[in-house]
Amino acid sequence: MKRIIHSIVWLIIALLSYSEANAFIVDHQCTDINKIPTSWLQAARNNLRIGYSHTSHGSQLISGITAFRGSEGSRYYFTRSGRGAEPYVFINDYWANNGAGDLGHRGDLRWVDATETMLNDPDNDRNVVMWSWCGGVSDNNADGIDTYLNAMHQLEQRYPGVTFIYMTGHLDGGGAAGNLHQMNERIRNYCRNHNKILFDFADIESYDPDGAVNFMQLMANDNCDYRSNEYKLNWARDWIAANPSSDLTVTTENCTSCAHSQCLNCILKGRGFWWMMARIAGWEPGEPDPPAPLTKLYYPHVASGDGIWQTEICALNPDNRQTISGVFKAYDNNGQPVSDNLDLNLSPHARQVINIAEQFRNPETIGYIVLECDCENITGFIKFFIDEVCRVAIPAVSQLNSGAVPITHIASDQHWWTGLSLVNTTLSEKILSLYFNNGVMKNVTLVPGEHRAFSIKSLFDNTPQPDINSAIIEGMVGVVGLELFGNGNQLSGILLSDKSSTEIYFPHIADDQQWWTGIVVYNPLNAESVLTISPFTTNGSPLPVQTTTLLPYARYRGTISTLDLAPETAWIKLENASGVSGFELFGTSDNQRLAGYSGVGIGGSNGILANLEKNGWTGIALVNIETTPTTVRLKAYNDSGETIATGSIVLRAYEKKVQIAADFFTTSIAGATYFTYSTDGDKLVAFQLNNSHDNTMLDALPAIR
User: Fold this and answer.
1) What's the average model confidence in pLDDT over 407-428?
2) Phi, psi of 76, deg, nearest 5
3) CA torsion 69→74→76→82, rounded to 10°?
């Protein structure tokens, strides 16, 4: 089944990219990537899956795009795997190199067999194929080049859903009269005459960014060396020296290597790569930029204006360049606009927190709020609280549910209550079916735009249901929501999400006289599933691994002591082949404070800890989930987006660092309201715990993106 699904996905995406790609040549005139609309870069990332095979010269392109890759969510970010095939990532680097190194010399066609082997794999999802030359054009002849061109054309015929990219060979100092230039011209003419896509490797390294001089004609080689009046010069080093403040010069500082050449050359080729990907995705240079896509961020429950509950919502701009403009729109429980719209304007890294009762008219009429804006990177959270009693914080909703949603934990007895808040974001009526673990089913109908908040016991004539502890909600396509559970002063909650994961992390365990930790892992499938539980100590030492079998719709739940985990357990990784969901709870032994967050999808190379407590303390847990050490870069910001402090820490393999937020920095972060972390591709998991100064209110948030 897995192979069938992969093949279908590959076919759909491949046909899409092939139908949109037109013939073109990418040369030195195609390196101004500021002209590319962000929407087309995103279209390339969404729709293209690249298999790239090369030796050292071809790595220049990868070095270039890596130098300005940025962090996850940024304009030029991409996912990449190493040697061989890995589904779903944007670039499979060294994709077919098990069968051939590069395009070879004089009619060598091993690369053709290697390509066919990879494309014929039932799990293949690549729809763009690139092979680069190394020195194979310099010593080639017309017959050898024609063999290459014919072989590429035949591959295009055999695989009509794949976009094949032709390339020229790197400069060798032979100039306009040299064999390399003649063979490159043969490739260029063929691509022009036969409507092919060409990445003109040689032409890009023939010009500096000003584009005024063709250095190939001055005997330039692959290292950017050329001759002028008998002097040996280097156009890349000279251009950087003459333009020390240029963005290109600054970017070269992030280029750790450029095989056989200068970093400026690699970066120009990396820029040409993104130009080419946007073109393949469908972008036509010179066309007016399309309107920015409308992004909606949902705050699916508001409790405000009754004199007891208060609600705060936060919007945060994680982008380091783009200003985000938008509007907060308030709706009543029937989906009708109420109150006043509130404009949003966030500069890079800025954050806005809104108290509903203070900034919206008639807050008691508001059921939920939607933020509409022009940037898909927007993120945020929602917070409910009763002053000096209880508090809960939950990430805002950026993705609509597309399938069945588990309710992983339900507590409905004489002491505990569980409530759901649901919003139908669609224009159609939704009939939701709640299938509880005791076999009972209840239906809930939502008209278009409707918001409904209700307790579990309200579905049973307000009778507590102690034998119900979980459920599955069918019919949740286009519906968003959250669940809250509480007992007296204890309150917590999580989003209702259809997302599951084969890996779930609980990055902090507190089990002492003051604190307890509870975990819940839920099997959302109608099939048994084996769960592997791997605990670790604070310094990353593995502890004894456990396995357990989860029955359909069953849970693995408890505290450290009840689950028989080692007392040294500081954090836990849980693995499962089919995907599970779950969350973690922290509570105090006096039953006065409670906080929780989801363990699904919290790993990544970067994240945002979105709210630093100003009237109490914020504790942060960072865990390196990789097998090698990593350096973590930290930045603290205020609400205006200004950098308050920077810092870094080194985490050993599987090490956890937990401390008060300010202790991660060597300088004061008193003016900061949130902070970010990032690595060079290594994955971390992180969360924050916020506590009020009087120890009455506690909330938790996972790292958000």
Assistant:
1) 94
2) -115, 20
3) 50
pLDDT above 80 for 41: yes
Q: Which helix (H) or strand (E) holds 358?
A: helix 356-359
Q: Which of 62, 102, 103 is nearest to 82 (CA)?
A: 62
Distance (Å, rounded) from C-alpha 48 to C-alpha 607?
Answer: 25
Count of C-beta atoms within a 10 Å radius of residue 588: 18
The letter for the amino acid at 113 is D
Residue 597's nearest CA partner among 489, 702, 521, 490 is 702
Q: Any idea which of 8-22, 276-290, 492-506, 631-645 has the lowest mean pLDDT? A: 8-22
Q: Is 144 helix (H, G, I), strand (E, B) or coil?
A: helix
User: How far are the Cα atoms of 396, 419, 485, 698 from residue 703, in angstroms, in the given order?
Assistant: 12, 24, 22, 17
Q: What is the number of other CB atoms lying within 10 angstroms of the CB of residue 374?
A: 15
pLDDT in tens, 170-201: 999 999 999 999 999 999 999 999 999 999 99
CA angle 550, 555, 556 (to 5 degrees): 80
CA distance 217 to 173: 9
Quote the CA–CA distance of 340 and 359 in Å, as a whole number: 9
> What is the mean predicted confidence (pLDDT) over 55-60?
95
The angle at the Cα of 257, spanning 252 to 263, to the nearest 5 degrees, equals: 35
Sequence-distant (6+) residues with CB within 8 A of 287 are none
The residue type at 223: N
Q: What is the mean pLDDT of residues 160-167?
A: 95
Neighbours of 648 (CB within 10 A): 15
End-to-end CA distance of the chain: 32
**Whole-model pTM above 0.85?**
no
Retrieve residue 140's tokens.
Answer: 């080639």
Among 74-78, 218-222, 532-536, the range scoring the smallest mean pLDDT is 74-78
CB of 478 within 8 A of CB of 425? yes
Q: Which pLDDT belongs to residue 9?
A: 41
Token couple for 57: 């010269």
Q: Is 278 helix (H, G, I), strand (E, B) or coil?
A: helix
Whole-angstrom Cα distance, residue 280 to residue 262? 27
Helix axes 142-158, 179-193, angle to 10 degrees: 30
